[in-house]
Amino acid sequence: MTSLTRLPDLDVLDLLVSVAELGSLGAAAREHGVSQPAASMRISALERRLRLRLLDRGPTGSALTGSGRAVVGHARLVLEAARSFNVEVAALHAAEAPRLRVAASKTIADHRIPQWLSALRDSYPDLAVALEVDNTKHVEAMVREAEADLGFVEGPHPPAGLGSKVLGSDDLVVVVAPQHAWARRRKPVTLRELATTPLLWREPGSGTRDTVWEILSAECQPARPAAELGSAVAISAAARAGVAPAVLSNLIATPDLVSGALRVVRVADSVSLSRKFRAIWRRATPPTGAAATLVEHAGRIESRRMVPMPPP
């Protein structure tokens, strides 16, 4: 293979184009982080390979020859093609990179997903995870419509038509502001009292709402909500302000309970306030690979939480 049939090095073509754009070999050398003598040697080597004089070198500097300007025009096309090549290769790598689309209810996303994903990263360090956060009904819809590979929801029952696995449970607590009458009562609140009291509720579609509604409906028709709010944060704020009692996940209520901004209301022993955390998926495509590993890690972590601590 002769020197004319071998492709020039892309770096030296880039250097030559910089000479044309910056107006001097010295400026091009500085742009490329090399000394001017080194840059001159590279251009000289290119001239020998092409058997063309590309620069007129004189006491006052270097200027492109007619052949040099022509080579620069072709070099720009070659460099643009090389950049396009690199972009396309990068896109291929991105397309082939493992990716997992996860949808989760708000409570799980805030209080469980970070730890689950951290465990998953140990097994799949290069995995890209896209997380969508919404209420339980919307998460179920995303899984059914194949907008998510895997979902995590809370509620009393498995979603109809989807595969699922119980990962753990979440305790719910009745909370009120310190000035509320229930904060001072000694007698536990009964299920009927809770059902007939206007409460702060999450929006329809929330797993918390579905769970509490089912528990209260077993006793009687629940009272009309004192307010319907779109997030647990908003409910906590309204409860702190004394608007009405609320039933919240213990995960969400704990900071306010610790600070004293909210008080737990004891409920009768016959009242069981809890809900299940579940992984859900389309039955036709049960989790495999990273998705199956995420479910496995989540289940293992939640099972450790459920183990009772030994007495001191």
Automatic annotation (TrEMBL):
Span of domain HTH lysR-type: 8-65
Protein name: LysR family transcriptional regulator
Family label: Belongs to the LysR transcriptional regulatory family.
Gene3D superfamilies: Periplasmic binding protein-like II (3.40.190.10), Winged helix-like DNA-binding domain superfamily/Winged helix DNA-binding domain (1.10.10.10)
PANTHER family per the UniProt record, alphabetical: HTH-TYPE TRANSCRIPTIONAL REGULATOR, HTH-TYPE TRANSCRIPTIONAL REGULATOR CYSL
Keyword annotations: DNA-binding, Transcription, Transcription regulation
InterPro entries registered for this protein in UniProt: LysR_HTH_N, LysR_subst-bd, WH-like_DNA-bd_sf, WH_DNA-bd_sf
